[in-house]
């Protein structure tokens, strides 16, 4: 049964206005502490729940935050969404997730028909979604997460170039001189281009022949709802294992952990030893990499820190506490060394 402020007021012997001020921590000094305690106790006993609709009407806010992430078949995004939801709820909002399944008809003002006060976005590399965000989200703050951008917008990203160098320097120090880069050829993320450019520059500086090992195009990966990374990594591992020993790379730096795990499973099944015959490094830092038969060496994206800073930035945008100039933050990555190298 719905409990109103008037119900609590009648039982406490005070006015509904007094109950409202007490429960909203806007108590005038003349209300005795004993009265405040009694009202709160009665509200608890009656299982009082604030009228959210009323609060929204009063504040002119929906108390909803839209969260756009890639398909949850990738553990990275499942872990990310769990972290975001917990932080958003702690801040007093509800999280409305969307995985981009409506990419052909995106609606960012109302995710799934629900209006939102702000939007967080990580990992949707579809230009159509991006254009739709910029077109529709006028007046709705948007914070992009994970990937740096060249345009004028708010983002909190990881340093893709620094992370790539961490991986490549680690492999070089382990004595590898034939290092391949396994990646889709056509992802639209700026960090994807940064990793390619950093890899090429690394090879040039060390007079090492670059080996670009293309896995499935992003269209095929998206159709597989991110499980395509693991599958295409597995297929790439088969091609690597079949190469003549003199041509085969001794190490592979992978676009993400799912690709790395797919390659590691594939080459192991075909008789190659990891890391003795081929070393493998991923990028993301998903927990699953620790529990493979060979723990995965991986570049760890500081996802929890990115989540916390992005939510704080978005809430300050919603409250109007920031100047119009975009806030752009890039955080360093770390290298978690496993037994795959």
Structure description:
It is a single chain. With 341 residues, this protein is of the alpha/beta class. The chain contains twelve helices and 14 strands. The strands form three sheets. Strands 2-1-5-6-7-13 form a six-stranded parallel beta sheet, with helices on one face. A six-stranded mixed beta sheet has the order 9-8-10-11-12-14, with helices on both faces. Helix 1 (5-12) packs across helix 2 (16-23) and helix 5 packs across helix 12 (303-319). The longest helix is centred in the C-terminal third of the chain and has 17 residues, at 303-319. The protein starts with a helix and ends in a 5-residue tail after the last strand.
Report the CATH superfamily of the largest domain.
Response regulator
Mean pLDDT, all residues: 84
Shape, principal axes of CA atoms:
elongated
Return the string of H and E elements: HHHHEHEEEEHEEHEHEHHEHEEHEE
**Termini separation (Å)?**
61 Å
Q: Write down the Rg.
A: 25 Å
- The stretches of 5 or more residues where confidence is low (pLDDT under 50) are none
Overall helicity: 40-55%
> How does CATH name the architecture of the largest domain?
3-Layer(aba) Sandwich
How would you sum up the major sheet? 6 strands, parallel
> What structural class is derived from the secondary structure elements?
alpha/beta
> What is the name of the CATH class of the largest domain?
Alpha Beta
- Write down the domain tally: 3
Order of adjacent strands in the largest pleated sheet: 2-1-5-6-7-13
CATH topology (level 3) name of the largest domain: Rossmann fold
Strand content: 15-25%
Number of strands: 14
How many individual helices?
Answer: 12
């Amino acid at each position: 049964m719905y409990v109103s402020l008037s119900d609590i007021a009648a039982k406490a012997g005070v006015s509904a206005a007094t109950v409202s001020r007490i429960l909203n921590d806007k108590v005038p000094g003349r209300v005795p502490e004993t009265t405040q305690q009694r009202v709160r106790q009665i509200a608890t006993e009656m299982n009082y729940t604030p009228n959210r609709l009323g609060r929204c009407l009063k504040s002119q806010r929906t108390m909803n935050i839209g969260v756009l992430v890639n398909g949850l078949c990738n553990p990275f995004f499942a872990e990310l969404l769990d972290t975001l939801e917990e932080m958003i709820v702690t801040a007093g909002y509800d999280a409305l997730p969307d995985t981009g399944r409506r990419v052909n008809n995106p609606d960012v003002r109302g995710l799934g028909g629900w209006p939102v006060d702000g939007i967080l976005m990580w990992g949707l590399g579809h230009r159509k979604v991006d254009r739709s965000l910029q077109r529709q989200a006028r007046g709705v703050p948007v914070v992009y997460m994970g990937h740096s951008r060249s345009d004028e917008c708010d983002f909190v990203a990881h340093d893709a170039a620094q992370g790539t160098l961490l991986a490549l320097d680690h492999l070089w120090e382990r004595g590898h001189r034939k290092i391949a880069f396994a990646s889709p050829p056509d992802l639209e993320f700026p960090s994807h281009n940064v990793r390619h450019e950093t890899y090429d520059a690394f090879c040039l500086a060390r007079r090492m022949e670059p080996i670009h090992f293309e896995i499935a195009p992003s269209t095929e990966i998206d159709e597989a709802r991110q499980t395509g990374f693991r599958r295409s990594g597995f297929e790439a591992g088969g091609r690597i294992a079949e190469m003549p020993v003199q041509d085969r790379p001794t190490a592979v730096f992978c676009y993400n952990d799912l690709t790395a795990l797919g390659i590691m499973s594939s080459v192991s099944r075909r008789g190659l030893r990891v890391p003795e015959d081929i070393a493998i490094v991923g990028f993301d830092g998903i927990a699953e990499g620790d529990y493979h038969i060979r723990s995965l060496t991986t570049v760890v994206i500081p996802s929890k820190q990115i989540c916390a800073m992005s939510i704080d930035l978005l809430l300050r945008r919603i409250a109007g506490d920031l100047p119009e100039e975009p806030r752009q933050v890039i955080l360093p990555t770390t290298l978690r060394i496993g037994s795959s190298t």
